[in-house]
């Protein structure tokens, strides 16, 4: 795990008064990624004025394109393409099998690494006058009405990134395609859909046996709540058993909610693109927990454009 980054100059041996514990992460292909637990360092690191883009806003923007074709580009080891200032390196020291190392490149696990990486890639794309695209850290998507158009946009974007010093692997470039995944979401004709592998994973889950497992299940399905009508009402029995004041009890009500939400996930609706025809109105749906606005068609011209308000609502729901 240490040999490859050391041979590439990503890390090197050091002597430092600082030290953080390692926290290896298993990759999807089964290999281990060297990461370090920088929670203590993160607590004393000053904030940055720069900010990451909002994923929900990126999804709305991509929806609005209603594109027919897509291509995605995932920069290989983007963090490791960015040198770490020499005077900062001692603070990032860690120990592996009794030997102390530090990073020469931007490490994973430090709280500002994603923001810095996103900003540098964004600057490179702007400087190179890249075609219209959306970017979230090292993930980039381009779109168009034909495969040829998207191919040329992707080719131009890749060339700009290569000239800026980033590495692009062929296996990390997807498309042109009519259907593609970006930001963990399946996209087709500007519509957001739950990926098949996510549906299979959720529907294969067994009923929870304690509060922690219930919270894990709710976490797995919560990201997709916008695809499920009356989501909050359906899962309210599951939230009841996670409350600190309640003992864990999995009864018929919880089992019914568990089965129903899995069925809803399996048949979830696609979202978008944003409608510009009939306006919408809000109807309050009273659940056992709170009121959730639901959107219904309304005669054209009766109300103003409610899309900004509903976007704020959805953004808040994502954080619940």
TrEMBL record:
Which enzyme class, named as a word?
Answer: hydrolase
Q: Where is the Reverse transcriptase domain?
A: 6-187
Q: Which GO terms describe its molecular function?
A: RNA-DNA hybrid ribonuclease activity
| Pfam families (alphabetical) | RVT_1 (PF00078)
According to the UniProt entry, what is the EC number of this protein? 3.1.26.4
Q: Describe the family membership recorded for this protein in Swiss-Prot or TrEMBL.
A: Belongs to the beta type-B retroviral polymerase family. HERV class-II K(HML-2) pol subfamily.
**Protein name in UniProt:** ribonuclease H
């Amino acid at each position: 795990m240490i040999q490859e980054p050391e041979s590439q100059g990503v890390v090197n041996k050091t002597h430092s008064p600082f030290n953080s514990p390692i926290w290896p992460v298993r990759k999807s292909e089964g290999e281990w990624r060297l990461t370090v637990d920088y929670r203590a360092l993160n607590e004393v690191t000053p904030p940055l004025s720069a900010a990451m883009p909002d994923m929900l806003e990126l999804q709305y923007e991509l929806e609005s394109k209603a594109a027919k074709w897509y291509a995605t580009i995932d920069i290989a080891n983007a963090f490791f393409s960015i040198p770490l200032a020499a005077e900062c390196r001692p603070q990032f020291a860690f120990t592996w099998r009794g030997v102390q190392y530090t990073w020469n490149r931007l490490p994973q696990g430090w709280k500002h690494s994603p923001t810095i990486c996103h900003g540098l890639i964004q600057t490179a794309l702007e400087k190179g006058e890249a075609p219209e695209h959306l970017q979230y850290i090292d993930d980039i998507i381009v779109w168009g009405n034909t495969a040829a158009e998207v191919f040329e946009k992707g080719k131009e974007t890749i060339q700009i990134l290569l000239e800026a010093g980033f590495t692009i692997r062929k296996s990390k470039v997807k498309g042109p395609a009519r259907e593609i995944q970006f930001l963990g979401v399946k996209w087709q004709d500007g519509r957001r859909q739950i990926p098949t592998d996510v549906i299979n994973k959720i529907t294969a889950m067994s009923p929870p046996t304690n509060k922690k497992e219930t919270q894990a299940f709710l976490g797995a399905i919560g990201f997709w709540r916008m695809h499920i009508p009356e989501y909050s009402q359906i899962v309210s029995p599951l939230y009841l058993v996670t409350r600190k004041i309640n003992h864990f009890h999995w009864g018929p009500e919880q089992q019914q909610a568990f089965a129903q939400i899995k069925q809803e996930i399996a048949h979830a609706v696609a979202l978008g693109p944003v409608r510009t025809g009939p306006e919408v109105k809000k109807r309050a749906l009273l659940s056992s927990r709170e009121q959730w606005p639901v959107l219904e068609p309304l005669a054209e011209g009766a109300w103003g454009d409610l899309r900004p308000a509903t976007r704020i609502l959805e953004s808040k729901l994502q954080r619940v």
